[in-house]
Amino acid sequence: MTSQQLSTLSSSGGELPDRWRSDIQAQLSQGENVVSALEVDLDQQLRFAKGILIITNTRLLARAPGQEQWQAWPFSFDLSLEHHDHAGVGHLELVSARGRLAAWRFTLGQNLQAIRLVEQFAAQRDSHASGQPLIVDDTNVCPSCKAPLEPDQEECPVCTKVVYTPPSTWTLFRLWRFARPYKLQLGLGFLLMLLSTGAHMIPPYLTIPLMDKVLIPYQNGTPVDSSLVALYMSGLVGAAVLAWIFGWAKTYVLALVSERIGADLRTETYDHLLRLSLEYFGGKRTGDLMSRIGSESDRICVFLSLHLLDFASDCLMIIMTGVILFSIDPYLAIFALAPLPFIAWLIHLVRDRLRTGFEKIDRVWGEVTNVLADTIPGIRVVKAFAQETREAARFRTANKHNLAVNDKLNKIWSLFSPTVSFLTELGLLVIWVFGIYQVSKGNITVGVLSAFIAYSSRFYGRLDSMSRIVSVTQKSASAAKRIFDILDHVSSVPDPVNPVKLAKVEGNITLREVGFRYGNRAVNRGINLDIKAGEMVGLVGHSGSGKSTLVNLICRFYDVAEGAIMLDGVDIRSLAVSDYRRQIGLVLQEPFLFFGTIAENLAYGKPDATRAEIMAAARAAHAHEFILRLPQGYDSMVGERGQGLSGGERQRISIARALLIDPKILILDEATASVDSETEKEIQRALENLVKGRTTIAIAHRLSTLAKADRLVVMDRGVVVEEGGHDELMAKEGAYYRLVQAQARNVDTDLDDRGSKD
């Protein structure tokens, strides 16, 4: 096979690294062609090493990671290549009627190519078995990721999961849904704007009689008519007063409306954000979300209250001025407006560049706020590892990137704004030249020319102002797009249209063929489990076995990909999310406390709880005594994330918080994993009060903490492998037995190490 033929391999199965080309050529026989390839990067001990699988038109070739020799399996009807993945590791197994022939491991970065490889294997095997040559249609694959496409499919479902669309000025019109409740106030504001603009139009018009009937006759020797001057002066003063009154009123009314629109926008965005599932937050940075709800909504509010008002006023002024100019002298008006098409074309040209530029600035600014959102909450870790210099360098890099993006955009804006100003000055120059010519011919008077100059100055002044608002408009469009990105996102855990109401919750939980995937990674599959009301079930297994994911599915933080979870015989997807979660008390390994008093944190799930109820829950959780030792007792302030309290104290407050809502279902996720033995005993006594009469699902690495569980469920690689009581599972000497033995060996090793040190 030639090098040119090998270079075309990426069209069907992923890019072939150059280091393999000569080795592959040496393995190929005459007339054998490479169809697809996959580079695997893990050996059988899950250590990083490079290997490769090759599918040709006649066989499967493989070189295992860390091995020098090649293996080959000719195609046969009973040969199959199976693919599965779990916990970040992909698996390919070559199986025949005799059993498993070979297996390969890889990280999930190659998962898409692995799926494609399996498809190509099946196609080549079937073609070989039937004796019909396989015609490979490379035109119907994604040019980027090589994923197969349907015949009528134009977009790749993999590559278009996150589709980037640049911000559009039309996005601002979507803000009307927030402005609709204030349409009467907006109508009043528009009327006041119209009156204010009309008042501003009066003074230049009065300059015509002042020039032609007062000043020029006076220069020619005619006495000044005082009454006429007083009339015109009164008109000028009256117009100025009216313009001030109407201008103040319209600014005040529209500013009030814009602030309320901004407040409604922030509120609805935050409400919608809280209703989104954990899957959405898993792919977002805290600083970016804070920036969207905070600074982006503020930018929109300023645009609505100031810049949009000025823009509308400028439009009215330009329209009215244009009408007046044409009514005074159509020919002069045509010359005056000559630069207008060039300015409009320039605005259109620059707008597109500004639109994408400002959206990029917003994203880069999000990088800056993300550094702050990471560092400030984690300042203890930063200082503990002496990484202040590193974090300062991260911020400096992000800030420098922000500066570079702004500088690039400012190059465009710095050229655009003076160019518009130059064209407006050119327009006024044209008016002077043609106006003087018209006066010399007697076609117009000096007063008309003066009024024309005054109106034109206002016209081009407003036009220049409108050109400058392009920048603000594109910034606001970018901000609106980032906010509507949140509002347009549909929760992956939706509320049902017609939720089922449970008259009384017993607490029976049933899982039927439950499966779940994180992206391409299968975490749980085929889980069947019945948990009776009031029963305590312990989930055990190695890290990554799918225990926490199963708990997240039961809490409906995520929805199952396969199967169903039922509460008292009703699918939990048929229940209102808030109603269902009110039946669940959750105690996490790392309890989260909010900034506020102890009492406020205890009553978080039940804000209307009385002080007596709060204290009763604290006593049951064995937290009452240490709370009373605090300076202000239950009114003592807790720092952000529970600063000022020990891990055991935070955990007992978390237990009391769960007790206070009196849930039917209790979830304990490693509730004692991060505390010492003495504190664990205190927490265990608190948990005894918490689990009474409740359906309890507990996860624990310390198997001793599940001694009082009615049943143990052992998980491995996302499936349930054993189920039963402690003694029953120990007698089987299966997965649970090995877990207990492994934990006992670790404990013995720790004790031996301590003894040798002592």
TrEMBL record:
The chain crosses the membrane at residues 184-206, 226-246, 300-325, 331-350, 415-437. It comes from the Bacteria. This is Putative ABC transporter ATP-binding protein. Pfam families: ABC_membrane, ABC_tran. InterPro entries: AAA+_ATPase, ABC1_TM_dom, ABC1_TM_sf, ABC_transporter-like_ATP-bd, ABC_transporter-like_CS, P-loop_NTPase, Type_1_exporter. One of its GO terms (molecular function) is ATP binding. It comes from Duganella phyllosphaerae. Residues 188-475 form the ABC transmembrane type-1 domain. SMART domains: AAA (SM00382). It is a multi-pass membrane protein. It is found in: Cell membrane. GO terms for cellular component: plasma membrane. Residues 509-742 form the ABC transporter domain. Keywords: ATP-binding, Cell membrane, Membrane, Nucleotide-binding, Transmembrane, Transmembrane helix, Transport.
